[in-house]
C-alpha cells in the first residue's frame, strides 16, 4: 500500500547518467556492456531516499485575499481598503489559530514563509511524521511537500526580437509602452542601478515608494523603475546575481521584458520599456545551493500580487513535466490568473525525445518534453524562435591573398581574446579531429581547424589539446550555427564557425596559403543563418496527459539584452522567449484596460486570447506542402503585438473558451466548434482556411522539423450547418464555425517513399494537427488563427519501456534496458563468442550475485511496479513500486539514456526462500499519466542457474586439446585454455578441439550465469583504471546509506603532486603518494552519528591551486521497529482470516514492509534530504489454513537495517469421531458425533470433538 500523503516530486534540472560502451575483465573475453554510473540528481533516479526534516506548505481553508477580489471582479489593489483589511485580517487570524493549534500539540516546527494572497498558508520545516499530523488540525486544507528548482541557465551563446514581434510599431502607432504596468521577474535577480533600468520623465508610476512602505513587505524600494525587490532565498536586500559562476540570467530576462535604454548607444529597449520591474530574486547567492523551493517563489508571487503586479515571468523549469494542477505552484499560477495577472513561463530547452542521440521512432509518438511548471494549465508556456540578427564575436583570418572576418561561438572557459591578445596563430586543417588524423600533423602552438562529424565535439578539442594546439575551431557540416557541448577538461579555446566560413578557410589552406588567425576584432551584429526558424532547442509538447502546451512562440535564440554591472550580452533559450511574451502581455493589457475594462479572470484570459489568436503560424522550413511547424512545437505561432493591439475580433474553442483546441485522443473521427466574436460596430467577413498535417517519417524515424499535409482525409468546415469557406461575424456579435475530421483513409508522407496510409506508417497512432485560419476578405483587420491537436489512435499503445538491449537498433531505441549483475555491474545475457546479447542467455546464480533492472523509459509513467514472475507469467513477488517516473529524454547527454533501479534488486528468493533453478521474469509494469490507461507489462527473462558446467572429456596429446562440455542451464558461454595456469585462448564450447603448443595445459568452462568449472585454477590480473585529474572519492558513495557509524573516507587526488593540504569535512586527512601511479591516496575512518552528512573535500597545492567537491551520505545504524498488537495464538476452526494491528517505525522514513517476502507497504523518503522519523499503524489481514500458520514480517529501512518478527497462529483442525469433552452448560456444545456444533440447554455430554 502507498502512504496516505499528498506529495510531489523534487524537481532538479540537471540529470546525468553515463554508460560506458564496453567493459573487459582481465584475461576473460569481452564480457559485454558494463554499467558505470555517476549518480543522477533527479529524485526518481535514487534507489534510497535520504534525510530528516522536510519542507512543507500548509494551505488553510479560509480563502486567500485574492479570491475575495476575484469574486468582486476587481484586481486586489482595487479592492476597497476596508474590505482588503478585513480580508487580510481573516487570513492572518486563520494562520495564527492554525499555528497555535500546532504549538499546543508540541510539534517541533520551524515556520518559514507566510502567503496570504495567491494562497492562504505558510511553509515550515518539521519531521515528516509530524507533518502528517497537520492535516487533522481544524482549518488545515492540505499539506504538500515543497518542490525544489535549480538555478536557470541560458544556452551559451541588437534586440531585434522587438521587431520580430512588432513591439516597436505597436508602441509608435498605439502608444502602448507599458506605462502603468508592473512586470514581476521571478528569477535569479536584477541590477536596479543598470543604466537601461529607468523610466522616462513624466511616466506614470503604478507603484511608488509610498506604496511599497504601505505594503509592509520584507523587501525594499530601489528605484522608480525597480520599485521593489527582495532576495527571497537569502532573506536580504541583495537582489543582484552575485554568486560565483552567476549567469545574470534574471537581469537578461528583465531587460528583454522592460529595459528602457538607447539602442543607438548599444543600449537595450525591452518590449514594455515604461513598465516597472519587480526584482523577485528566488535563487540565492550561496554558491553551494544553486536551487530554490516552490514555496519561495510562491511567496514572491504572493508579494507581487499585493503590490498590484500585472504580469509575472518565470523563466525556469524541469524537462518532461507532469501536470499537477493541485501543486502549490500551479494553484498560485491559477489564482494569479483569476486576479487578472498573466503568468509567462518558459517551455524548456530540451527539444524532443532523444535530442542529440537519435530522432524518435515512428512507433513512439510521445516525443514531448515541455517542462514544469509551464505545464500548469493557467500559465502561458512559451516556445522559442531564432532572432533575425545575432551579436557575434569576430575573428580575423589573414591569408596570403585575402583577409576574412568570421563570426564564431566560444564554448570553453578559455576566452580567445584573453588567450591571444594581439597575437595570432597559424591554422592547420585536421579533418574530423580523430586521433589518427593528428598523427604526423604538427599542430604545436597552432590552431586546429576541424570539421563536425565522426566523433563528439569534446573529443575533437581534447585531441587537439593533447597534440599541443592552442585552440580548436570546429566548422559545421551543414548550414546553421553550432551549439557545442563542452567539458571541464578543455583548457584551450573551444570555438565554432559556420560551414560556409569553415570551407572558405579550408580552400585557402588547400591552395597552399598560410592562414593566420587573430582575435582582436570588436563584436558585431551579423545575420543569423537560422533567422525566423524555430529554435532547435525549444521543447515540444504535448504534456503526458495530452494537454495543449506550449501556447505561443517568441524570439529566444541569440537575444541581446542587459547584464548586471552595466553590461550586455547574448543568451539563447526559452528563458529569453518568455520575457518577450511577458512584456507583450503588458502592452496588450493597456489596450484591454482602456477599451474593454475587463478585470480578474476576464482580463487575463482576454489578453491571452488576443495574443494567441493573432500569433502568426510559422511555416516549417523543411516541411512539405507549405506545412506549418507543429503546434506541439510552436503553439499558436509567433507573437504579433501589432495584430493583438488592433484586432476587433477573437476566436475560441466553444467548449473551453480557450484560444486553442486539445482534441486529446480520438479514433479516426473528431470534431470541434469555434466561436468567433466581433467587438467592432460593423460586420466582418473572414475567409476560412484549414490546415491538416502531421510529422513526416524517414526510414522509420520522425523528421524532427518536418511536417507534411495529411492527404485523403475528409475535412469539413461549416457555418450554421452548411459547408462554408467564409464566415460573416455580425457587429458586436458572434458566429460559430464547425470543423469535422475523418482520417479513416488518411495518408502521411514518408521521405523517399511518398504518401502511404497513415495507420501503417504510424503503427501506434499519430498526431493530427493544424490551424484554423480566418483572413479578413477586405484585408482591413488582422488575420486570426486557432491551433488544434489531437491524437488519432490509442494513446496507451506506444510502449513505456524501451525493449531490451538484446534487440536490434530500430526495435530498441537506446539499447540499454536489461538486467545487471550487482556483483560486477555487467549486463547478463552477453555471448562473448558471437559478441551479442541474447534474451535466452540471461542467467545468474543467486549464490554469487543478485540482479537489478536497468530501464530506458520512453514515456512518463505515473506508476511503475517491479515484479518477479514464474515461467508461466504468474506473479511470485512484488519487489518495488515507484511513482511519477520521467522518460529518459537524453537531451544532448544532459539526461540519462536509462535508469538503474537498484532498489528493485532480486536476490533469487520468493517468500524469503531460494527459488528452484529455472526460467523466471523480471516484470516492469507501468501506467502512463493518462486517465483510464491500462497497465503495460514488459518482461525481462532471467534464468536461475546454480550448477556449473561439466567436462565429460578432457584429453591432451601434446599437440591437440580435446574436450566435451555441457551445462544444465542456458548453456556454456566460453571455454578458457590455460597454459601454466594462464589463459592463452578463449574458444567456443562447440570447438571441441584446440591446437596447443605447450606442456602444462588445462581448461575451464564458464556458463552464462558465471558458474565456473575449473580443471586448473588460474589467477587473473585486474584491470588498470586511468582517471581524469580531480578528487576521486571511492567512499562514501553519493547519497548512499550506511548501517555503520564507522565510515571509511577513501579515494585519490590526481594532478596534485605538490599537495600541501587536504581536508574532509574541515578535518585534516593524511594522504600517501603513490610514486608509480603519480597520485595521492587517502583512507581515514570517521565515527559519525545517525544523520545526513555532507562532507566538503578540499585539496590545495603548494603553488596555490585549489579544488573542492562535496559528498552527501547517510548514516543509519538504528534498526526499524515492528510492534504487533495483541492477538490470539489459537483460534477456532471457523476463523479463516484475522486482522492484526501492526505498527512499524524508524528514525528515517524510508521503509519497505514485507509479509513472507511480499511488499505490503512502502514509504519513499522525499527531498529535501533530512532525517525524518516515521510511525505507521497498519491493519493487515492474514488468511489462516487449518493447523499451525506462521507468517514472517520483515521491515527494511533506508540503510538496509532489517527487523524480522514471526507471527504464529493455530487454527483448530476439524475433529474426528471419538471421545471428547463436550460441555453443554447453557447454549453450548451438546450431544454430537464428529464435527457438528450442537445447541443444547443444561448439561449435555457428548462424544466427539466439539468447539
From TrEMBL:
Chain ranges of the PA domain: 432-505
GO molecular function: serine-type endopeptidase activity
Keyword Hydrolase carried by entry: yes
Alphabetical UniProt keywords: Calcium, Cell wall, Hydrolase, Protease, Repeat, Secreted, Serine protease, Signal
Residue ranges with Gly residues bias: 1217-1251
C5a peptidase/Subtilisin-like protease SBT2-like Fn3-like domain: residues covered: 661-789
Bilayer-crossing regions: none
Ranges for domain Peptidase S8/S53: 178-635
Position of the signal peptide: 1-26
Region annotation Disordered: where it falls in the sequence: 1208-1251
A UniProt-annotated Pfam family: PA
GO CC terms of this entry: extracellular region; membrane
Chief subcellular location: secreted
Localization, UniProt: Secreted
A biological process from GO: proteolysis
Active site: 187 (charge relay system), 249 (charge relay system), 575 (charge relay system)
Cofactor(s) demanded: Ca(2+)
Family the UniProt entry places it in: Belongs to the peptidase S8 family.
PANTHER family listed in its UniProt record: CEREVISIN-RELATED (PTHR43806:SF11), PEPTIDASE S8 (PTHR43806)
Name of the protein this chain belongs to: S8 family serine peptidase
Organism: Paenalkalicoccus suaedae
